[in-house]
Automatic annotation (TrEMBL):
Main location as per UniProt: membrane
Name of the featured protein: Maltose/maltodextrin transport system permease protein MalG
UniProt keyword annotation of Transport present: yes
GO biological process: maltodextrin transmembrane transport
Family label: Belongs to the binding-protein-dependent transport system permease family. MalFG subfamily.
One annotated GO molecular function: ABC-type maltose transporter activity
Annotated coiled-coil segments of the chain: 86-124, 160-222, 306-340
Upper lineage: Bacteria, Pseudomonadati, Dictyoglomota, Dictyoglomia, Dictyoglomales
Sorted UniProt keywords: Cell membrane, Coiled coil, Membrane, Sugar transport, Transmembrane, Transmembrane helix, Transport
Organism, scientific name: Dictyoglomus thermophilum
Domain named ABC transmembrane type-1: residues: 535-732
Pfam families to which the protein is assigned, alphabetical: BPD_transp_1
Gene Ontology cellular-component terms listed: plasma membrane
Length: 747
């Protein structure tokens, strides 16, 4: 009996891994068909879907901006239209004018349909006003009942009043401390200003003392060569010297001044009183001494003031530090009491909110029409959300806040509907004006283009001003006024489809969304791309490189597998080792090589697809090693039997070995094609012309530059780019199996 085992752990792991693995694919597919370009939305699937991205890639529509630009180029005969014959140009211009008229007419028809659906929606909702009021009343009533039922239990009223009283006293104390700290800071700043002033005055005194010191030094040098006589005592001179030296000695900074004064007094003592120089020196020295005495007295006074202010500043700092510590303690007590009070104030806050719900319930019955009801209720959502935000900050998230949030979500459609109505009115007004101007300009273009075209045929370079006016109308007036309002109408219509409580209204919203989206596509300026050319370039380059690589590798691998020659063992390994280096190492060398080759062989130069194909042929070593390994598994006896029957070595190769090696050759073709199709680095370095880009570079342009926000185009291009590789694999997979049975039968 066979026992069946259930691998629960394996199944659980698989169920977890499958969504994770498939999520990127689902995201790419859903984003490629989204109309709202919301690539990073929390909603993976959108109700607003469209295949417009695929249409823009495969068969881009020549809408109004493109037609206007093309017509201007046709009339001015700019390249490539300068090579067209006259009849062809005229026919193309007439076709473009007809298309312009058709687009204007389609826009008008689409707008009429949108307006009709908008009116039908308003009429339907107006008829449902009583139902809306009833459902709204029930929604608010259920919230009120839920809050009343789950209202926290009230604490003792005495506890709350006592704590609130303590909290009030603490706040008053903290306010007093803040006031005291502020006053101290004002004093501190005032003391700092005074301190700075005293320091500047001290510096001025110091400069004056240094100036007098320079005079003393000059006198010392002047009387250094005079002959000295015996020492004569002079009590007056002695007293002046002693007093001055005593004052200067208090400050070490004035040691040089002190020494110079001592030297000068010493010289004065030994000079003869009869000398003329004695009188001059005595007078100068006494004058300098007097000035120095005054300056030192001022210096002493300023130093005392400086010391006093230093002490005051230090005391203020200590006092402020103590006050800050007191403030922190009081704030800690305040926070503790607030935490204790929160549960008690929570009840009061909820009661106040419930009271506001009562007033809202009374208002609901007073509204007689839909517009008044919507205008009032559209503000309730923001009120509810503001209350929830404040509630969560104070008390944290709980079931009550979640219930209020869900109710606010139920009111969201009122706000969206109000925005839809306001924007639709603006959209209608501006679109009507734009259509009128566009129709008038188109008529004038139709009447005047032949005259301008005739002049351009005669060699002039004139442009049709009406075409420029029409283009400016599309690029400025439509974008700034019509498109801005229209996009919001479209978005709100899409949002309302998901949240409006009436299923019947969704069909009108869907039609409004589709209508304005089509109008936007008609008038929208789209960036030109060459997606189909990019895919074609990649298919050509990848296909040619894959075929050449497979052909060369199949021939080159055969001698290494079947023949014996010097270097056979290490030759292929050497080639393989060279290929192991990262491509970034030699990309500059390859760029230089193609630059040189392009001078002599232009089709192998830079910015050419053939040059890029030539670069991709460098992947031969790895594929040759792969095919050689497969050749080794094919028995030699098959070839030997054929050679006995008269077959040549080459005949055995292509009639026996190649059919048997078809699986590996198919694998090499597929892998080479896929690697080259998705290769980016060398293609980005070599190719500069946008029309010669490969698919990989083209895909990169959809995620940067002018396409950096168009995720719909990017994902659609990614999915379309998978098709060539998928088709190649599906078309060649049968050769992987059938090749195993080919060539194994003798004869």
């Amino acid at each position: 009996m066979v026992e069946k085992k259930t691998y629960w752990l394996t199944h659980i792991v698989l169920w977890i891994l499958i969504p994770i693995i498939l999520f990127p694919v689902v995201w790419v597919v859903s984003t490629s068909i989204r109309r709202d370009e919301a690539a990073f939305s929390t909603k993976i699937f959108s109700s607003r879907v469209s295949l417009q991205n695929y249409k823009d890639l495969i068969a881009p529509e020549k809408n109004m901006p493109a037609l206007v630009q093309e017509m201007q180029n046709l009339i001015m005969l700019t390249p490539p239209y300068d090579n067209w014959d006259r009849k062809r140009v005229e026919k193309e211009i007439e076709r473009d004018i007809s298309a312009l008229k058709s687009y204007i007419e389609e826009t008008n028809n689409r707008y009429n349909e949108v307006e009709k659906n908008y009116k039908d929606l308003n009429n339907y909702l107006s008829l449902k006003t009583d139902n809306i009021k009833t459902s709204l009343y029930e929604l608010i009533e259920s919230l009120k009942e839920y809050l009343e039922k789950n209202l926290p239990k009230e604490g003792k009223e005495g506890d709350l009043s006592l704590k609130l009283s303590k909290l009030k006293k603490l706040k008053e104390k903290i306010e007093e401390l803040n006031s005291k700290i502020y006053q101290n800071r004002v004093k501190y700043n005032r003391f700092l200003e005074k301190l700075s002033l005293i320091q500047r005055e001290i510096l001025e005194i110091d400069k004056k003392i240094n100036a007098l010191n320079n005079e003393v030094a000059n006198l010392n040098s002047k009387f250094s060569n005079f002959s000295l006589v015996s020492y004569k005592e002079n009590s007056y001179i002695e007293e002046a010297q002693s007093a001055l030296i005593s004052k200067l000695s208090q400050y070490s900074d004035f040691s040089l001044v002190t020494q110079n004064i001592k030297n000068l007094y010493q010289k004065l003592k030994y000079l003869s009183p009869k000398d003329i120089e004695y009188t001059y020196l005595q007078t100068s020295l006494l004058k300098i001494s007097k000035e120095l005495n005054n300056l030192i007295d001022q210096f002493d006074k300023k130093v005392v003031e400086l010391s006093a202010y230093d002490k005051k500043i230090a005391l203020l700092n200590q006092e402020n530090e103590f006050l800050e510590m007191q403030k922190e303690l009081l704030q800690g007590q305040e926070e503790n009491i607030e935490e204790e009070v929160k549960p008690l104030t929570k009840i009061d806050k909820l009661k106040e909110f419930i009271s506001s719900l009562d007033s809202k319930l009374n208002k609901i019955q007073m509204f007689g029409n839909l517009d008044d009801l919507v205008n009032e209720v559209s503000n309730w959502e923001s009120e509810f959300r503001e209350f929830v935000t404040s509630y969560i900050i104070d008390y944290g998230r709980d079931s009550l806040s979640s219930k209020i949030e869900s109710t606010a979500e139920g009111l969201k459609w009122f706000n969206d509907y109000k925005t839809l109505k306001e924007r639709f009115v603006s959209f209608s007004s501006y679109l009507s004006k734009n259509l009128e101007k566009a129709s008038d300009l188109t008529s004038r273009i139709e009447n005047k283009w032949r005259d301008v075209f005739e002049k351009n045929l005669q060699g002039n370079r004139l442009y049709l001003s009406e075409l420029d006016d029409l283009y400016n109308l599309i690029k400025t007036d439509f974008v700034n006024f019509v498109s801005a309002n229209m996009n919001i109408v479209s978005k709100k219509a899409g949002d309302l489809m998901d949240i409006i409580p009436f299923k019947e209204a969704k069909k009108w919203l869907d039609r409004i969304d589709n209508g304005v989206f089509r109008i936007d596509q008609i008038w929208k300026q789209k960036t030109k791309h060459y997606f189909l050319k990019w895919v074609r370039n990649s298919i050509l380059v990848s296909g040619i490189a894959a075929i050449i690589t497979t052909l060369i590798c199949s021939l080159a691998a055969y001698p290494f597998s079947r023949m014996r020659f010097w270097g056979r063992r290490y030759g292929i390994l050497t080639l393989l080792l060279i290929q192991m280096f990262p491509s970034a190492v030699y990309m500059i060398a390859i760029y230089t090589l193609l630059n040189i080759l392009g001078r002599f062989i232009p089709f192998l130069g830079l910015d050419t697809l053939s040059g890029l194909t030539f670069v991709y042929l460098g992947n031969i070593a790895y594929n040759m090693y792969l095919i050689k390994g497969y050749y080794d598994t094919i028995p030699d006896s098959l070839e030997e039997s054929a050679m006995i029957d008269g077959a040549t070595r080459f005949q055995t190769f292509y009639k026996i070995v190649l059919p048997l090696a078809r699986p590996i050759l198919t694998v090499v073709v597929i892998l080479t094609f896929m690697n080259i199709f998705n290769e980016f680095i060398f293609a980005r370095i070599i190719l500069q012309d946008a029309q010669k880009y490969t698919y990989a570079i083209g895909l990169w342009t959809f995620s940067s530059g002018p396409y950096q926000t168009e995720w719909g185009l990017f994902t659609a291009a990614a999915l379309l780019g998978m098709l060539p590789m998928t088709i190649l694999f599906l078309s060649l997979q049968r050769y992987i199996v059938s090749g195993l049975t080919k060539g194994a039968v003798k004869g």
